[in-house]
Design a protein that fits this description.
Chain A is of the alpha+beta class. Chain A is built from 2 helices and 4 strands. In chain A, strands 1-2-4-3 form a 4-stranded mixed sheet. In chain A, strand 1, helix 1 and strand 2 form a beta-alpha-beta unit.
Chain lengths: 90, 90
């Protein structure tokens, strides 16, 4: 089952915009954009493009910022910030 | 008067963390971190460091994402995403 989650990474912006549009047009009522580190600004770009240009009926439901503890290649713990943006059909 | 706004740009992360700490220790009850474009992820880093490490009593009050219309060096309109994160003393 589609959980409505899109992980935003380093692909071109429009890939994520189209993935979001596809989920909404498949009848999913809520799409969550998740991103970490430098991809955070791309997730914001996706959300803004969707709600202001592509699908103006879509609403911004929730934004959360997070910290994840990861282990780097040298075995050290590092903290990486993340964002979760929930878009919803009204 | 200090309006409690910090514009997060390309300086080292700790500059903004210390600027935020300074505002709270000067008695300002709310600090708003504003960033555009690639600096958005740095603003999230600042907010997460402040509330999870440096000043655990500080709460995340509001997050907003925005679009600003700017004009580039060739006179073309471009849209730039931004974020506003409001941190508050309880």
């Amino acid at each position: 089952m589609d959980d409505g989650v899109i992980f935003v990474g380093n692909k071109p912006l429009m890939n994520y915009v189209m993935a979001t549009m596809a989920k909404f047009s498949n009848g999913i009522g809520e799409v969550t954009l998740k991103a970490r580190g430098r991809a955070i600004s791309r997730a914001v770009d996706v959300a803004e493009l969707i709600r202001r240009r592509v699908l103006p009926e879509i609403q911004l439901k929730k934004i959360d910022i997070t910290t994840e503890e990861l282990t780097d290649e040298n075995g050290r713990d590092i903290n990486v910030s993340g964002i979760e943006i929930v878009l919803a059909k009204p």
